[in-house]
Specification:
Blueprint: H1 9-14, E1 34-41, H2 44-53, H3 64-69, H4 79-94, E2 99-104, E3 117-130, E4 133-144, E5 147-160
Antiparallel strand pairs: 1-3, 2-5, 3-4, 4-5
C-alpha cells in the first residue's frame, strides 16, 4: 500500500483499507469482475475488541491458552467479526449510495487466528436490472496466506442507476 502524504499509509493498512477506490462505473461492471480486496490484520488486541463488541465472550476468541486447549492454533475471529469483514468489503465496493441486500452462506473452513491477515475478496457472478437499480451477486471468500478460511459465500448488493442530488440550486 502506498503511503499517504501525511504518513497514514501504515495505519490505513492496519485498519483494513481497501486495495482500490470504491465502485467503478455501474454500467462497466461485468460478470467475472473482481471487487477490490480488503486486508484485515488480526493482532490480539483486535480479536479481544471484536469479542467484546459482539458480546461473544467465549474464551476461544480472546484467550490463547483456552483456544489451544480446544485444538485451535491460537485465539481466533468469531463469526460476527468475519461477517463484518465481508460487509466492509461490499460497502467499500458499492459506496454509500449502494445497498447490501443479503450476505449468505458464511462457511468457516479454517481458523482466522491471531497474528494472521485475513484477505476478503470477491467476484461478480451475476448482474441484472431490477426496477431502477443494478443488482449484483458477488461470490465472497476470505483467505489467510492464500488458503481459504471462510466461504465461498454470496453477497447481494444493489446500486442505483442514477444518483440524484438532494441539493438543488435556484
Amino acid at each position: 500500500m502506498s503511503e499517504t502524504s501525511d504518513g497514514r499509509g501504515e495505519r490505513l493498512a492496519a485498519e483494513g483499507a481497501a486495495a482500490t477506490p470504491a465502485c467503478p462505473s455501474r454500467m462497466a461492471i461485468e460478470v467475472g469482475d473482481p471487487i477490490p480486496h480488503v486486508d484485515f490484520p488480526l493482532p490480539v488486541y483486535r480479536l479481544v475488541m471484536a469479542a467484546g463488541a459482539t458480546r461473544d465472550l467465549a474464551p476461544l476468541h480472546h484467550n490463547d491458552d483456552f483456544a489451544r486447549a480446544s485444538g485451535a492454533p491460537s485465539m481466533y475471529a468469531n463469526a460476527l467479526f468475519l461477517l463484518g469483514m465481508w460487509e466492509r468489503a461490499l460497502r467499500d465496493f458499492i459506496g454509500p449510495a449502494g445497498s447490501i441486500l443479503a450476505i449468505r452462506d458464511l462457511r468457516m473452513a479454517r481458523f482466522a487466528a491471531a497474528g494472521s491477515v485475513v484477505r476478503v475478496s470477491g467476484t461478480v457472478v451475476r448482474k441484472h436490472l431490477s426496477a431502477d437499480r443494478l443488482v449484483l451477486e458477488i461470490e465472497l471468500r476470505s483467505t489467510v496466506d492464500d488458503v481459504l478460511t471462510v466461504g465461498p459465500g454470496l453477497g447481494v448488493v444493489a446500486l442505483p442507476l442514477q444518483v440524484h442530488s438532494t441539493l438543488t440550486r435556484p
